[in-house]
Amino acid sequence: MCESVHQRHEKWQLGAVLAKYPDLQVVPSWDEDLVLSGTVSFRVLVPSGEIIGDSYSVTLNIPSDFPETNPSASERDGRIPPDYHKLVGVLNSELHQQCV
Amino acid sequence: MNTTEAQQSRLLSIIVDHLDVPKSYYDKAAARHRSLGEWLHRKESTVAAYDPDVRPQGSFRYGTVIRPIHEGDAYDLDNVCLLRKLSKSILTQQQLKELYGNEIKAYAKANGMLAPVTEHNRCWRLNYADEIEFHLDTLPCVPEEAAVVQRLVLAGVPPELAQRAVAITDKRHPHYREITSAWPSSNPRGFAAWFEQRAALGRVRAQTTNQIRSAVEDVPPYEWKTALQRSIQLLKRHRDVMFRDQPDLAPISMIITNLAAQAYEGETDLLSALRKIVDKMPGFVRPTSPRVPNPADPFEDYADKWRTNPRLEKSFWEWHASAKAILDRLPQLLQRTSLQSDVRSHFLVDLTEDEERLFPPLGSRPATAVVASSPLISVPAATKPWGTDV
Fold this sequence. Notes:
Structural class of chain A: alpha+beta
Largest sheet of chain A: 5 strands, mixed
Strand content of chain B: 5-15%
Structural class of chain B: alpha+beta
Distance between the termini of chain B: 54 Å
Radius of gyration of chain A: 15 Å
Strand content of chain A: 25-35%
Mean pLDDT of chain B: 90
Number of domains of chain B: 1
Oligomer: heterodimer
Number of domains of chain A: 1
Low-confidence stretches of chain A: 92-100
Helix content of chain A: 10-25%
Largest sheet of chain B: 7 strands, mixed
Number of strands of chain A: 5
CATH topology of chain B: Beta Polymerase, domain 2
Largest interface: A-B, 35 and 45 residues
Shape of chain A: globular
Helix content of chain B: 40-55%
Order of helices and strands of chain A: HHEEEEE
Distance between the termini of chain A: 35 Å
CATH architecture of chain B: 2-Layer Sandwich
Shape of chain B: globular
Low-confidence stretches of chain B: none
Radius of gyration of chain B: 24 Å
């Protein structure tokens, strides 16, 4: 039996992502992709021991055949220049991200 | 229930109060159903001989009406008109639809309604435009034959619900213009009775715990305001807000109402009821057709459109994940400085200043935009965490 949308969301731990990033929301779309959009806040503990906090406004597109096809992430406020850099595989072993 | 949970429940109750409509709206709706019933029974009526029985359906019957998200949008009213002395053996679906339609058009004209009566696949729509704007969808039908009722009973439907099944008309039906017993079957009246049984679970429990004093029979179901009804109002509102830019993708109210009522177990507290409903709801979506059957007619699938448009199923699960996440995050929401904007974002409700003051910080609310609960990433040594190809 093929995987249902609900099973797919459970496997991706969509609920955990939404709980961890309260300002990230599911955006309804006519595409097959799951689209998440909103603000991702985080804190970084740097080598000097300081904690730097910041947040970015992002849109994430997760294709239905993820992880076979990588998701894409775009930063919406233009804070990251498009030619600055590309990131691949920076999140964890299961979730790869491409900056576009 | 601990303090945090009591606060969560209180917040949810306040939000529902913002969504609810005044009792006068229900009274107005009831008056419109009554008025139409009286019209159909007047001496000159072409259907009076068939003993028409008009009964309200939909959210105005269930007590789950919410304000539209756009000020001035019309409320949807539904009713079923059963012609009790008519049988599908003596006329076609088309003849019934036209016979009833002529009466509805005459009613609109006699009442000075300027907007035209419009025909839909199964019903006629009356457009009211006075102080409260309503659409009234009225569905003509005849009693279902005994064999169909028996089939429902054999499928597990309690006889008192099965006997409410009706034969309806549908312009898309292949035998729409033929006299045949093969009419579309439906059971909206059975669903309404079943829903009221589910909602009554909470009412009976509230009575036994002395939370309410009046007898169940004293108050119509739409005035019960059980935790089930209030939970459905919240879930529908979240749906309306989430899909306000893509309304065609939104899960329909009947799916939400059906699944919520199945999941409900008589909780009297709003938070407990909503948690139970959202957690258990997925278990009532069947893996095969019918995906979301009418409990009063298991052959009727409220999610039949999912077959032809899989995006609708995807939207349903996205909505469910989103609703669950909001509920799971409620404790954090109460600790954020952005309570007002969070409530607005999820429910398009503006808390008053007095209401906001009811939720003082439970701990120390972080003052900065980046909340203290944000994930902490440790960068032990790397100066260029994104690698070497920069």
